């Protein structure tokens, strides 16, 4: 382990590795402060479950438009640099909302002002996530490509550690600190992140701000449209030699053509930016319009948006009816993080060779069965068998997060396999945004369902019925699994 980390430090430099670990740790540690946000919405603002879930859904919307941040940073360098300036801007956006909420009690006690600041904070966090992903991709390219997997492993590991620490300390902080102090305490991490940006050097670009993906051969994008299911499974772009060959055949011609257009003698800088955006948007649109990409991503969106998310309602029920305290709920989230890591390990160790359709079917059928545990919890059936509320909540949390990871791993793998050469980073960000947007719409759907069923604080009579609808909806995506390539597995060939 020490040798592996030492190699990364020598290859990429301590400042860069520190910055990567810090950003991913902060992303995981966000559970610390968002636990406080949940209690602020519930106890201080006295919002109903549906209203609380609506505010949270609006706040997380910036995660649904991640490709915009990537395209902007690629097309509009700041003083010749495409990463560090945008990372500084992102860090400031993720820092100041917590400082304002920590210092101004009147602001955090206003629903609209709180929602706007949380929206800005998520905008900064999502932008930082995109920028650091781009920096990792660039750093792992060329002669350092052999360390790409190790760098990605460090990222996931530090985020998991951050999630565990945030979940553990979040409940403790709510018991021992004022709400404002919790927000100020969390702001320490983005403050350190801001100063850390100054220690990472970025070489300024010397050419016009052409996006990297403009070198993609658009002819290939057009000619690779497929319609039948067998071609979906056999014609998927694979990373490696095939992708490099495709990009080399026509990429140079397109780059020369685009560059000649954008380097006109009288062309202003805004005009160059416009041309960059035009090329980026057109290439991204053409790539995403291919059935081989559109159909699987359509399934993953459906698998999110068709299921109403009642997590906020369950949070209200667990705290008001079951009287579970913040420390215990933090512990349950730790179990969830452990289940997530266990799901990742199990998939990588045993399920890579299994067809993705089978894995996704297993995931949704199992999730529907695990959702039945919520019905047991709400209907109090477990009490007859001497099972405590705490055990049922912990057991359900760990298993649900592990199964969700079974579903998320194929999404990551298939996304990587489907990305055409030259636009991997931006298209992958688009895939993640689709997944995030589906989750946001799922939360809106859940908030609407809770409102229709008159589920509110102190009134959970129809909660069992709502969970029953969630169980049925979890099975809907199984009917659309034909959109997933038939022969696709987790093994890249």
TrEMBL record:
CDD domains: MFS_FBT (cd17484). GO terms for cellular component: membrane. It is a multi-pass membrane protein. Belongs to the major facilitator superfamily. Phosphate:H(+) symporter (TC 2.A.1.9) family. Keywords: Membrane, Transmembrane, Transmembrane helix, Transport. Its main location: membrane. Residues 243-252 have a biased composition (Basic residues). The chain crosses the membrane at residues 12-34, 84-101, 113-132, 153-174, 299-317, 329-347, 463-484. The keyword Transport applies. This is Biopterin transport-related protein BT1. The lineage of its organism: Eukaryota, Viridiplantae, Streptophyta, Embryophyta, Tracheophyta. It is found in: Membrane. It comes from Centaurea solstitialis. Residues 224-267 are annotated as: Disordered.
């Amino acid at each position: 382990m020490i040798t592996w980390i030492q190699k990364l430090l020598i290859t990429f430099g301590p400042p860069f590795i520190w910055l990567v670990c810090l950003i991913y740790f902060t992303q995981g540690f966000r559970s610390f402060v968002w636990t406080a946000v949940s209690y602020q919405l519930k106890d201080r603002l006295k919002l109903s479950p549906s209203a609380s879930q609506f505010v949270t859904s609006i706040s997380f919307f910036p995660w649904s438009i991640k490709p915009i941040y990537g395209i902007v940073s690629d097309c509009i360098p700041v003083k010749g640099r495409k990463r560090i300036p945008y990372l500084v801007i992102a860090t400031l956006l993720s820092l100041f909302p917590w400082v304002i909420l920590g210092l101004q009690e009147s602001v955090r006690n206003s629903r609209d002002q709180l929602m706007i600041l949380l929206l800005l904070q998520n905008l900064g966090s999502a932008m930082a996530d995109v920028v650091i992903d781009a920096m990792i991709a660039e750093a792992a390219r060329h002669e350092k490509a052999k360390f790409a997997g190790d760098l990605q492993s460090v990222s996931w590991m530090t985020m998991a550690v951050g999630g565990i620490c945030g979940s553990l300390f979040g409940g403790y902080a709510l018991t021992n600190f004022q709400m404002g102090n919790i927000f100020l305490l969390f702001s320490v991490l983005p403050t350190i992140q801001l100063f850390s940006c100054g220690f990472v050097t970025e070489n300024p670009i010397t050419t016009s701000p052409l996006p990297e993906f403009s070198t993609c051969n658009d002819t290939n994008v057009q000619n690779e449209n497929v319609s039948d299911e067998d071609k979906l499974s056999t014609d998927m772009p694979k990373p490696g030699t095939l992708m490099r060959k495709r990009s080399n055949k026509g990429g140079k011609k397109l780059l020369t053509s685009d560059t000649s257009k954008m380097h006109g003698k009288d062309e202003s800088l805004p005009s160059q930016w416009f041309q960059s955006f035009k090329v980026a948007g057109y290439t991204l649109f053409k790539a995403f319009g291919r059935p081989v990409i559109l159909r699987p991503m359509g399934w993953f969106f459906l698998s999110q948006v068709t299921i109403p998310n009642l997590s906020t309602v369950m949070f209200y029920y667990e705290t008001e009816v079951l009287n579970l305290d913040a420390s215990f709920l933090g512990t349950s989230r730790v179990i969830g993080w452990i289940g997530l890591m266990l799901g990742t390990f199990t998939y990588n160790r045993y399920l890579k060779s299994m067809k993705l359709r089978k894995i996704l079917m297993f995931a949704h059928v199992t999730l529907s069965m695990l959702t039945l545990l919520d019905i047991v919890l709400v209907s109090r059936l477990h009490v007859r068998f001497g099972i405590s509320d705490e055990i049922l909540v912990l057991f359900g949390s760990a298993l649900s997060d592990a199964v969700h990871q079974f579903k998320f791993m194929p999404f990551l793998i298939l996304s990587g396999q489907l990305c055409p050469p030259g636009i991997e980073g931006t298209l992958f960000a688009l895939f993640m945004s689709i997944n995030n947007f589906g989750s946001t719409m799922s939360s809106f759907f859940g908030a609407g369902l809770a409102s229709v069923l008159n589920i509110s604080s102190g009134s959970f009579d129809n909660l069992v019925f709502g969970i029953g609808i969630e169980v049925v909806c979890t099975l809907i995506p199984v009917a659309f699994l034909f959109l997933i390539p038939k022969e696709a597995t987790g093994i890249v060939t």
